[in-house]
Design goal:
Structural class: alpha/beta
Bound molecules: zinc ion
Largest sheet: 5 strands, mixed
Distance between the termini: 28 Å
Shape: globular
Oligomer: single chain
Number of helices: 13
Order of helices and strands: HEHHEEEEEHEEEEHEHEEEHHHEHHHEH
CATH superfamily of the largest domain: ATPase, nucleotide binding domain
CATH architecture of the largest domain: 2-Layer Sandwich
Number of strands: 16
Length: about 375
Amino acid sequence: MPRREDAPVTTTTISRQQQPPLRAHNRSLVLEALYRDGSMSRADLARRSGLTRPTVSALVSDLIDDGIARELGVRDDARVGKPATLVGIESDAFHIVTVDLSSAERFVGAVVDLRGGVVERASVELDGAVGEAAVGLVERLVDDLGSLTTRPLLGIGVATPGIVDHEGVVRTAVHLGWYDLDLRSRLSDHVGLPVHVGNDSNAAAVGIRTFGETTGQAAAGQSLMVVTIDHGVGVGLVVAGALVEGDQFSAGEIGHVTVDENGDVCACGRRGCLEEVLAAPQLRSRLRQHDEGSRGAVLNDAGRALGLVLAPIISALNLNEVVLSGPADLVEGALLRAARETVRQRTLSAVSNGLIMRIAGSGTDLALLGAASFVLQAELGLT
Ligand SMILES: [Zn+2]
């Protein structure tokens, strides 16, 4: 795997920590504008970022020197005066290895460029692996992906189910049998690169915010809830542009909210948790027990249970956008319709009138791209 110290491009100079805070902040504003709105002139960058022209010019020079931005030629629609030179992100300056551990069947990963373009993909089958065996599979996947990249790596991003703190310690990931697992240190020792670990649902929400335009999943506003339905059920919540993680990093852990007091016993020891009705393995097993004619009713029940849990959250925060991410054969159709209808019935029209509830087009890549965003945030200062 190409380590950063062997890389042809000097990477140590891009560390935000080495810059004065104000300059690092201003640099983030410029990068942010280039990420959100695409290539533009220095004058447009000054308008978008609220910085002065000389400040923007100096910051752009730095970004070009670091290889992160480049001049893209002259815009040909200039009205009067000298035509403006466009500046854009240099997508291939670095690559990022990103992995998503949320599926019950396999760990998936990709090599992506700085604009979230997927360069290579790889995956490893889980075959029921938990604990140390599962950590070994993550290491193997990261190694496989590292060997596929041709550019210097900016870092490794990991989206994992469970509760993850700011040090990259997975405090609890029940399905993987991980408790207080220092995944960041383990991987970083293994590959010799910066590693950034976050919750998979949070990653999906961050992925839409950072790469929404690239993936056709752009968020409608500044607040957004992503519900991921896979091995478990989780929520990633962005409110007024900021990720909500909670005091114990457990915001969005809706999987063990009780929806049926007489329901099946859950892995957490209680009965009738949302996951027992809605998580992909449980839902698939329930569908197998029913004939074709009653599949719709099973999916309807699952969607209704989700709507029951989401209605008070949507009301409390007046959210306008909810994105369901999960296997298309499960979440599309009856499940989405039932969830939408249940939320509508249980909230004031002032809340539900503006609500968009939709399916994510590419469920798997949202968490992958979000994990890449964790790396961009930490290594380049993107917010
Ligand atoms: Zn439970």
